[in-house]
Write a structure and sequence with these properties.
Keywords: Coiled coil. The chain is mainly α. It has helices spanning about 1-45, 50-70, 80-105, 110-115, 115-140.
Length: about 140
């Protein structure tokens, strides 16, 4: 009976480790998308390409909420992660406001409309790089 209980506990731990590894792998795949979106938005803003800016803002919102949800389900992350999750959600809301402004005001310049969001994204991108490095280390060890 003890052997069965230990085997069940070991299997449960193995399942949790596998789930955590899958989550980390998913995050590793998603986080670099932020850099791509940041570059796309910078280009769109500098050229006042409103359509491209809107696409980038929408893409960011979707990915930011997905990453926030995944991080919220992760185990063993440092305490700053919950603050980061809230900042991700807030930046997604800022992106949505910028998108709404571009959609409703046809005279609004993309550089001006996205200024606040681009500032937030620049700050978040640095932390995203740290997360990717940390997650890669966890997967490899």
């Amino acid at each position: 009976m003890m052997r069965t209980a230990r085997a069940a506990e070991a299997a449960e731990r193995a399942v949790r480790r596998t789930e955590q590894r899958l989550l980390i792998n998913h995050l590793i795949m998603l986080l670099p998308e932020f850099r791509s979106i940041e570059n796309e938005l910078d280009e769109a803003s500098s050229q006042n390409d409103r359509k491209q800016a809107i696409r980038a803002l929408v893409a960011y919102s979707h990915i930011a909420y997905e990453v926030a949800a995944l991080l919220g389900g992760a185990e063993g992350l440092d305490p700053t992660t919950s603050e980061y999750i809230e900042r991700l959600k807030a930046s997604a809301r800022t992106a949505a406001r910028a998108k709404a402004a571009l959609v409703t005001d046809s005279d609004l310049n993309a550089l001006i409309a996205t200024r606040e969001f681009r500032e937030e994204l620049t700050e978040l991108s640095a932390y995203m790089g740290l997360l990717v490095g940390r997650f890669r280390f966890q997967v490899e060890h």
